[in-house]
Design a protein that fits this description.
The complex is a heterodimer. By secondary structure, chain A is mainly α. Chain A is built from eleven helices and two strands, in the order ααααββααααααα. Chain A has a two-stranded antiparallel sheet. In chain A, helix 2 packs across helix 8. In chain A, about 50% of the residues are buried. Chain B contains ten helices and ten strands. In chain B, strand 1 and strand 2 form a beta hairpin. In chain B, helix 3 packs parallel to helix 6 and helix 6 packs parallel to helix 7. Chain B is globular and about 45 Å long. Chains A and B meet through helix 6 and helix 7 of A and helix 2 and helix 3 of B. The complex binds adenosine-5'-triphosphate and magnesium ion. The site of adenosine-5'-triphosphate has 11 residues of chain B, from strand 2 and helix 1.
C-alpha cells in the first residue's frame, strides 16, 4: 500500500514539476504572479477532450497541437496585453491575470458547459503488474513526457541564445537591454513557453482527472505550491518541488486519509514560506535559474 | 556642431518625472576620441549616460549618433548601432558564468560566429584573470575581476563608443591602474571612442584628451584635459590640491 502510493507519487511528481516550472519561470523572469496558469492547463484539457471526442485524436498526440497553440496564445497575451501593465503595480498585474482567468473559465462554460468530461483512450485502464504493484501505463507515459519536456526546457534555457537572453533578462533587465536584449519580446517568448508547458500538462492530466470548470484554481494552487517549494523563479527548484508535493500528498493520503490530500500540500507550503521563503533548494544568487 | 562628430548631444534636458536633472547639456565626441565627464556626486553624470544609452527618454534636445538621430531608440537597439554602456555598479549577470556574460555582450552582433569567438579570445588575452575563471559564476568574482568582466562584456558588443560609468568605484588603486592600462591597450588596438565618467579625476584626465565638467545638471566647462589639470579651480575642487 505504502510502496504503491509512493510509486504513484513519483509518477505524478513529474507533471507537478512541469506545471510548477512554467509558473516559476514567468515569475523569475518578469516578476509576474501569473494567475492564468491554472486556466491554461484546464483549457488545454478541454481542447484535448474535443480533439479526442470529435476527431479521435489520441491525447498524447494532441500534446504538440495544444503546446503550439498555447505558445502562440501565450506569446500574444504577453506581447499585447500583459507587457503593458508590467511596470505598473503588482496589484494591476494580479487583477489583469485574474481577469484573464475569469475570461477563460467563462469560455469553458460557454463551449463545454458544466458537464463532467473525461478523455478515455482505449489504454486508459491498462497497467503492468510488477511484484504486487499496479503500474498504470498512462501514468508512466505522463511521467516520461513530463520529464522529457522539463529536461528540454532546461537545455533550452542553458544552451541556446534565446535561453541565455531569458536568463539575462531575469537576472538584470536593464543590463540585458544594454547588451541588446529586446525584453518585451523575450517576455513574450517566456510566457509562450510557460503556456506551452502548461498546455502539455493539461492535455495529459485530462486522461487521469475528470474535466470540470473549477480545475483552474486547483491547478493554479499546485503550480504555486510547487514553485514556492522550489523557490519562486528557481527552475531546478521547481522540479524538486514537484516531487516533494506529490510525495507529501501521497503520504498524507496513506497516513491521514484521502480527504487530507489538499491540506497537506498547502500545509507544507505554509511551513516552507515561513521557514525557508527562498525555497527548499537555496540559491546563491538572486533570481538565479 | 562639428560635422563629422561621432556623438553630438545638443541642448539635452532629462527629468525623472517632475524632477529635472539635466539642463541644456551640449557634448561632442569625435571618432576614436577619449573624453572624460567629471562632476560632483548627484551632478547627473549617470543620468546623461543612461539617456544616451536609451534607458531614459530625454525631455528635450537631441542626441545625434553618426549623423542620425538617436532619440527614442530603445536601449536594446542603441547597442546594435555601436554604443555600449558599462553601467555604474557593473551589473553583471551574477548567476551566469564569466564566459556567458561575455557572450551576452555579443547578443546583437551579426558579423558571424568566427568574429565573435575571435573577440572573446581577444578579451581573454586582454584580461588573463577572466580567462582563468571563464567557467566561474560572475557573482563569485572579486570586485576588480567583476569590473574587467563588465568592460569585457562592453567590448564584446564591438562598440564604436564605449561609455564607462565609475569603473574605479570600490576598487583598490592597484586594481584601477591595471584596468586602466588594459583599457588603454584596448583603445590602441580597436580605436573606439570612450566617454569616461569618474570620481578618480586624475586617472580620467590621464586617459582622456578632453574633458567636460557637469555641475548640478549643467555643463560648466569643456576643455583639453591638460588645461583642466593645470586649472587652479579644477585642482582645488577635483584633485584636492
Ligand atoms: N531614478 C531616479 N529617480 C529620481 N531621481 C533620480 C533618479 N536617479 C537619480 N536621480 C537624481 O538625479 C540626480 C543626478 O543623479 P545621477 O545618478 O545622474 O548623478 P551622478 O552624477 O551620476 O552622481 P554619482 O557621482 O553619485 O554617481 C540626483 O539628484 C539624483 O538624486
Ligand atoms: Mg553616477
Amino acid at each position: 500500500m505504502l510502496v504503491q502510493e509512493l510509486l504513484n507519487a513519483v509518477l505524478i511528481g513529474g507533471i507537478y514539476a512541469a506545471i510548477g516550472i512554467g509558473f516559476s519561470l514567468v515569475y523569475g523572469v518578469m516578476n509576474l504572479l501569473n494567475l492564468v496558469h491554472g486556466a491554461i492547463i484546464m483549457l488545454a484539457g478541454y481542447v484535448t477532450y474535443s480533439l479526442f471526442a470529435r476527431l479521435g485524436l489520441d491525447p498524447f498526440l494532441s500534446i504538440p497541437v495544444t503546446m503550439g497553440a498555447f505558445f502562440v496564445v501565450g506569446y500574444g497575451l504577453q506581447r499585447f496585453v500583459i507587457n503593458r501593465i508590467l511596470t505598473a503595480s503588482v496589484f494591476m498585474s494580479l487583477i489583469l491575470t485574474y481577469g484573464i482567468d475569469l475570461v477563460i473559465v467563462n469560455i469553458v462554460l460557454l463551449v463545454w458547459k458544466t458537464d463532467l468530461l473525461a478523455v478515455t483512450p482505449s489504454y486508459a485502464g491498462a497497467s503492468w503488474a510488477i511484484g504486487g504493484l499496479v503500474v498504470s501505463k498512462i501514468r508512466v507515459a505522463i511521467f516520461v513526457v513530463s520529464a522529457a519536456l522539463t529536461a528540454l526546457m532546461y537545455v533550452f534555457l542553458d544552451g541556446t541564445r534565446t535561453g541565455r537572453a531569458i536568463r539575462a533578462a531575469a537576472l538584470d533587465k536593464e543590463a540585458a537591454e544594454l547588451v541588446g536584449v529586446d525584453t518585451p519580446g523575450i517576455y513574450a517568448v517566456t510566457y509562450g513557453l510557460s503556456s506551452a508547458l502548461a498546455a502539455a500538462a493539461g492535455s495529459m492530466l485530462a486522461t487521469i482527472y475528470t474535466l470540470t470548470p473549477t480545475l483552474d484554481g486547483i491547478y493554479l494552487g499546485k503550480a504555486f505550491v510547487v514553485a514556492v517549494l522550489g523557490g519562486l523563479g528557481n527552475i531546478t527548484g521547481a522540479a524538486v518541488g514537484g516531487l516533494v508535493l506529490s510525495f507529501a500528498e501521497s503520504l498524507g493520503v496513506v497516513v491521514l486519509g484521502p480527504s487530507y490530500q489538499e491540506i497537506i500540500g498547502f500545509g507544507i507550503f505554509l511551513v516552507v514560506l515561513i521557514l525557508r521563503p527562498y525555497g527548499l533548494v537555496g540559491r546563491r544568487f538572486y533570481a538565479e535559474i | 556642431m562639428t560635422p563629422d562628430a561621432l556623438l553630438a548631444i545638443e541642448r539635452l534636458d532629462v527629468a525623472y518625472g517632475e524632477i529635472q536633472v539635466l539642463w541644456e547639456v551640449d557634448l561632442e565626441i569625435a571618432r576614436g576620441e577619449v573624453v572624460a565627464l567629471l562632476g560632483p556626486n548627484g551632478a547627473g553624470k549617470t543620468t546623461l549616460l543612461r539617456a544616451v544609452a536609451g534607458l531614459l527618454r530625454p525631455r528635450a534636445g537631441r542626441i545625434v549618433w553618426d549623423g542620425a538621430p538617436l532619440d527614442g531608440v530603445p536601449a536594446s537597439r542603441v547597442v546594435a548601432r555601436g554604443l555600449a554602456l558599462v553601467p555604474e555598479g557593473r551589473r553583471l549577470f551574477a548567476g551566469m558564468t564569466v564566459a556567458e556574460n561575455l557572450t551576452m555582450g555579443a547578443y546583437r552582433r551579426t558579423d558571424g560566429r568566427a568574429a565573435v569567438s575571435a573577440d572573446l579570445e581577444w578579451v581573454f588575452e586582454l584580461f588573463p584573470e577572466l580567462a582563468a575563471r571563464r567557467r566561474q559564476q560572475a557573482g563569485a568574482l572579486s570586485g576588480g575581476e567583476q569590473q574587467m568582466c563588465a568592460i569585457g562584456r562592453g567590448l564584446m558588443t564591438k562598440p564604436r563608443l564605449l561609455m564607462l560609468d565609475e569603473l574605479s568605484l570600490g576598487l583598490s588603486p592597484v586594481a584601477v591602474d591595471r584596468i586602466v592600462a588594459m583599457l588603454a591597450a584596448a583603445h590602441r588596438t580597436r580605436g573606439m571612442a570612450m566617454l569616461i565618467v569618474e570620481q578618480d579625476v586624475r586617472m580620467a584626465l590621464e586617459l582622456a584628451r578632453r574633458a567636460y565638467i557637469l555641475e548640478t545638471g549643467r555643463i560648466t566647462r569643456g576643455d583639453e584635459a591638460r588645461r583642466l589639470i593645470d586649472d587652479p579651480r579644477v585642482k582645488k575642487a577635483y584633485l584636492g590640491l
